[in-house]
Each structure stands twice: as structure tokens, then as C-alpha cells.
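Re: the multi-chain job from yesterday

Posting the exact lines I submitted so nobody has to dig through the queue logs.
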Amino acid sequence: MRVFITLLTLYPYQEEDLRKKLNLEEVEKFWEGVKAAESFDKGIVFSNFEVEEIKAIVENFTRDEREAYKGIIALLRNLNCIKVNLTDYDLAYEKMREKLEDIFDAYAGKVDLEININLSCGHKAGALALYIAIMEMIYNKSYYRYLRRRVRTRIILRIYHAEKGTISPLPILNFENGRRRNWEKYLKYLKKPVKLSQLRKDLKKDGILGREGDKILMYLLRCGYIESMEDGLRLTEKGFTYLQLMEKLGKN
Amino acid sequence: MKLLSTLGWAPQVIVEVARVLMPEENIVFYGYVNEDERPRIENSLRKVREEVENLRVVKVDPMSFQDCIKKIQRFLDENCVANITGGTKIMAFSLALQAAMVGIPIVYVVTTKNKMRIKTLPLLLSLKGKNFLREGSTAHRMLELLLTKYGGFAKLIDLKRDLGIKYSTLSDAKRKLMEANIIQERKEGKNKIIIANDIAYLFMEGEK
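And the result, C-alpha cells for all chains:
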């Protein structure tokens, strides 16, 4: 099973020159991504717009833009086009992860699965969300073993940025989405060095008890946000920067 | 705090983050894809210069992972925050992935109805399990040699000789690097040639 996944957007800006330039580039990158995938049985497109919306919006654009999107619209009718907010990482991530789970549940370990992912289109937040969603699928769901060459049913994963004739592969590594933990917020209890017993009391106020507290502590230590000292714990430079960031964003 | 930002056509996303975070130092990476784009980027940079204090600008090739990664690495430390809103995807990915590997926070700006909001991007390198690219591992040594001595292009037999390891150990490291999309292998006659992908520079210590 060969699956091709890409992002796609269109720019509806008022300023014609800028809009036209961006839209023509988007179309070019889309086809470069398709070309790099060579062939596929199943295509998935994450886009800010549904096919009919794209069709309606480009009607008001220049002839060049209309012509450029015409080919894409024809192709999209045969692909699975999913509307996603590509400028919001969290919203995009949730939908993409859901779709990827469907694909992996259906094919991984059952047949050879080749996935080509084009990250050159759409917006950055959406592209990063797709990248992290696929990395999490591979590593957190233990599909990593299927990447090996000597397994009966393989997963071949190609994830790339294709633009101006250059295909740049991205690494397949154990990157993950840290949102589900969000434990950095507890750094607020370490503004000053504290004893472990005090930190446990502070966490307890937030309803964090026993082993959960240990997990948080280990996480903050392993991330390098805090360090042990003789009679307690304190923030590292990295932890201090993180805390400063959260405080400043909180005030904003 | 040191704020590292990638700049594109919209200077506001740099100015806004700098205004809110008030870092001691602002490092802005910029570059134009072609001459047509140059005036827009220069205009954007001029506006950033007007409004952002303690600024240092660094020109990059916005279409090259290798160039972006190498230049960003020089400034990256534990005191940094990364703003990936502007610039090309290659610039933003270079900054985001390096930030995730070092474990520093990443932010981006979402604009809705002309209102800008700064959001964090929860990207990190998993702390679970073994990392085959940890310093001192065969894969890391192989990659380091490939990039530093051979400029990213070497015969497998030369890597084996320099590392002084068994072929099976080298082969295992090579497989892991290939599975991770970090290197490629090509045959030239009887020789196996190992080629580093641009993204391989993520795993090397940059020149400070």
C-alpha cells in the first residue's frame, strides 16, 4: 500500500501580486511533492479549505491562479481531502494524528506500507504538526520495528520538503508532542531553591499525589529544567528561561 | 533570555514576540530565495531593525537545511527561546528541530482577525528509550567522521578503516542512520558511497 500525504493551502489575500506569487508557488510545491512520491494508491490532503471552497475562491483570482489550481482540484476529487486549521498546531495535530492512526491500524504490520509525506506546502504550524504526528505514531505506538529491512511487512517512510527541484529529507527520530504532559507549568514552584518535601506539598495543592509527583520530578530533571543540590532542588538556566517565558506569556 | 527568530515577509511577528518577551538579546535569521524576493525581505529587516533592540542579524540560505542548521547552531544555548513564525519552512524547521533537541521552548504567532497571539509549540525529543545517536555511539562517531573529515561524502571502506571497527558494527550503525533518513547509500562500481543528507548537521556540535 503506497500512501501519499501532503498539506495544501491557498492564499486569499487582497494584494494581487503577493497572492498570485504565493499561490503559484504553493501549486508548484504541491506538484513537486506529488512527483517525489512517484505513485500512490491512497492520497490524503490536509488543507485549510475543502475542495469546493478552493474551487469557489479561485474563481475570483487571476487566470494564472485559476489555471494553476484547476489541475489540483481535479486531483483532489480522487483523494481524501481533510479540512484542518493549518495555522494552529494543536488543532492540526489532533486531526492529523487521528487520520494517521486509521492508516496505521488498517495497514501497518499487515501489508508493506510505503508512506510519502510532503511538508513543503501549507503553513509551518500545520507542517510541524504533521511531522510530529507521524513521528509519534512510529515511536510511541512501537511501529518503529517495521522500519527495519528484514521484517516480513515493512513500513517505508519518506518525509521530505520538496521545492525548486530539491528534495530535502527530514529525520525519522523520536520527536514527540509534549502538550499532553504540560508539566513545565510546575516550574513555578521552583522560583527559589526548594526542599523536596516542600515541592511535594506544592504539587499536592495542585492535586498531584504520590507517583504522579515522582513522574513530574523525573521529567523536569531529565529535561534539564531542574537540578539537585545538597538539600533540595533548583532551576537550571534552561528551567529559568522556560519559567520566564511562561510568566511573560501569562502576563500578555 | 536570548530570542532566536526566523524572519520572512512579516516583521510584525518578530517585533511582537520581542515586545512581549523582552529578551536581553535578539538574533534574527533572514535570507531571500531569489532577487525578486530581496526587496521584501530587506524591507522586513529594516522594520525589525527600527523596532527591536539588542539585535543581531544573520543571513542564511533559506532553502538550505545545512546552511540554516550550521548558522543557528552557533547561537543556540540553554538560555534561548525559538520563534519559528517567520521565514521559509526550511528555516523554521531547522530552528524548531534544533530547539527540540536542546530542549528549549519554541513559540509561534497565530494571527486571527488582525490580533496576534503567541503560542508555545510543544515539540521535544523523547526522553524514553535509547538514543542511537547519543554521543560516543558508533552511529554518532560514524556521522561525525562523515561530516567533519569527508564533508558528507565518503566510501564505506574509508569510514570502516578510520573508525577501526568490524564491518558488522559499522553496518548496523549505517542501517540505523539510513532508517532515520540521515544518510543515503549509493553504489559506484564496487564501492559503497555514504552520503549525508543536509539534515545530518542537526546532530553535530556547531562552531560557537
